[in-house]
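Narrative summary of target 7.
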Amino acid sequence: MTDAAVGAGALGRRGIVSLAGEALRRPPQEERPVTVLLGPRGSGASETHSALMELYGPTYPFAYLRFAPGQALLPRYALGLLARQLERRLPQYRRMSFPLLTLGLLASDEDLSMTSLEEGRRSIQQRLRDFQQQAESRHGDYLAAFFEVAGGAIGAPEGASTAALALLKDALRHGRRRLTGGNRFGQAAHWYGAHQLTRAQDRWEALTELNSWRHQGHEEDRERLDRILFSAFLEDLRRGAAPSFSPRSFLLLLDQADTRYGRRFLDLLLHARHDTVMANRPCDPLTVVASCNRWLPRWGPASGEQWPWQLRVPDGASLEDWRAHRPPRDSEDTWWYPVRLRDLQPEEVHTLVERQLHTHPGLSPFTRLTPFIHRLTGGLPKGVSQVLQALQHADGERTPGPAQERWLRTLPDRTVLVGEVQRTLADAALDSLLEGFDDRERDRLAECAAAPDLYVGTQVLGYGEALFTQLRIRRLIDGPGAFTPSLHPWLRRLLLWKLAARPSDWEAAHDLLAEHAREAGRTTDRMYHLLATGRLEEVTDHLLSRFDTLPARSWISELEKVTAAPNRLASVGGPLELLATLAPPEPGGAVTGRSVVRGLVAARWLWSDPLADPGMRLGHVLADGFIQLSRLGRSDNVALLNESERYLHWRPSQTTTDGS
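Modeled conformation, tokenized:
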């Protein structure tokens, strides 16, 4: 399967799409994971939901639910919405129905206000028929009534394709699905009477018990009711997959499942599945793909050190990988399959830009800028889309050259449309990434972003671990294996852009971090922060002194680390103009060791910032600088010559740690 087969939403997510298809094709009773797509806001989870819907929706019953923050989506409402969508008729299958769930919802819907169980037994059958008839007269069927009370939880995934929207609309179409009365009620009621969670063995008393749990019970009773409703939902799916010409698998898409009610839904779903399998009954035929922008509390600390799972990568996602790494089956953790959504790679950004040309041909002049877009955003899908939207307004700057470079230098302050409101690109992107952070927290975070190691930044600047922990929970910090715990590059670049507009805070943050590095004996880190405050001459002197004492490869590595420093240089002028200001030629054009090193430091500093050198035009300057450096008389100048070649025909270093 190729990414092209499922649209732009699945770029970089091919393994997830294949995993879902693999699970859907398995026999009904075979065990499947609850796949969780974990990544920061804008990492493409909603688009992945859309791609799954588009690819598998025509073949398998599916349901989509979005647990928006602040939306009180009770578990019973969520089940009603999901069941109603899964009832969608597909030409190749008989229609699915949910008699157990529907009866449980009906029985616990309105307060029966009975004075005795005997009265409850007599009245519940009539009341059930009354509730059903009222719902059918108003909505066509009982489950359709849930659209009225909780329909806002459906919506559509962000970035949904036209095909996905059409499928979702079809799944939500109101029909007339009537339960046949007494006998059907009676058959389903037997299941409740025999269930381990109900105390009464009489089927009608068991339904009366459900009613009392919801309307007169304590918190534990309402918990028990939710658990039995989820058990009924999964049992309906098992029974529905059994007859001939029935669907053998069902797709469940849960968006923003890290919210309060989303977490509650996942907990209940896993508990119901686990109880069933541990009782030696078949697993349900449900393929679940949920998306989360936060680490779930039930997994333990956000570092992941106390959880048996290690986050998987989407490229290698498969049932085989899940089976190989799942914890023992006696733990509910065995059902998770956590996949960390990765950023787009440069070639995937290029593909995304090319696909945008069909609807936005005005972007055509900017296709050559895809390396710049990737460097700027780190490949975060929503960041890429937001930058492309801003570029559409560059009407007068479509020709490569100094004018375009000057325009791109201030790209974060260019406008994009959010809904019907114009916002700067920086504000729109930060509002998305840092939803829930207030202005004071954002200001503090911008100061902490001055440190490449975020943990060091929060400690040195006195903001403690709370801010760091919140960012880790939101997956905005590079994961395990990263050299330092650093902010996502797109978020850090935006925060530094904001900090640059506060000159005194910029200077104070870098001065404090430079002093901390001096006290800790981390000279390279100190030079990084000195360069960020514009102390080019002092940094030049340091690197010049190190040139004669370090092996060439080590010196190059130190140069890269130091010149990865952020800058708040003037926004006017392209890279060559900025370089001429920072490192003007020596009088008489003299070439000295100091002038060469200063030129390299200045050029590499600008080159490492995509806003300062969007076209990487300073690569030739850097290549020439390393050639000149090799002539200063060293025995190991091959490394310098190789570095010159690397910048002349750019390819990433195997040792650099700054992401260049």
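The two ends are 31 Å apart (CA to CA).
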